[in-house]
Amino acid sequence: MTHRIILMGAPGSGKGTQAVRLAEHYGIPTISTGKLFREHISARTEMGRLAQQYINDGELVPDEFTVNMVEERLTHPDTAGGYILDGFPRTAAQAQALEECTCSAPITEVVDLVVDADAVVARLLNRAQIEGRSDDTEDVIRRRMEVYRENALPLQDFYRARGLLREVSAMGAVQEITDRILTVLGQ
Length: 187
Ligand code: ADP
What we know:
Layout: E1 3-9, H1 15-26, E2 30-32, H2 33-42, H3 46-57, H4 63-74, E3 82-86, H5 92-100, E4 109-114, H6 117-131, H7 138-161, E5 165-169, H8 174-184
Parallel strand pairs: 1-3, 1-4, 2-3, 4-5
Helix pairs in contact: 1-8, 2-3, 4-5, 6-7
The structure holds adenosine-5'-diphosphate.
Residues 11, 33-34, 37, 54-55, 58-61, 66, 87-90, 94, 135, 144 line the site of adenosine-5'-diphosphate.
């Protein structure tokens, strides 16, 4: 079976970590919008210049830019055997655009990583010390959580209505969580 998976979860839910592990398991690429934006910023591209202020403020980059960037990425040949989307879609409008796009066959599963709010703030502050990301300060983390909460319900409803949503607890050890996800996906 070809997996075209969306990984959803709050900032700090461990989405990026799990995306890499799933990609390895299935031998398919991970497409991380946060990572793509950070690469554009490092490479000083026009997209990087547009995205930077939004990211530093913990706001979403406008849908139009984000959707264009993902749609372009999905046309690369390495996505033919499936892919994992990490951090996209983040809004119902992005989900709608993805559904209508001729750039990909339909999504096969949406995994929603469920965590409690205190745990994620602690994880993010810990990561801030390790990775030094410019958007991992406490105020910006709080804003990213708020933005996530505003968008999560409509997005969950969108995929629940299509029978694609799989909720998985993301509390516990990294390997345990990977095992839970693989079980839900039928390995
Ligand atoms: P996290 O999920 O931990 O906040 P990401 O690396 O996924 O980290 O995202 C970092 C930032 O990149 C977001 O706060 C936002 O500014 C931007 N971003 C990532 N994905 C999207 C998206 N789908 N739509 C709009 N902005 C995005």
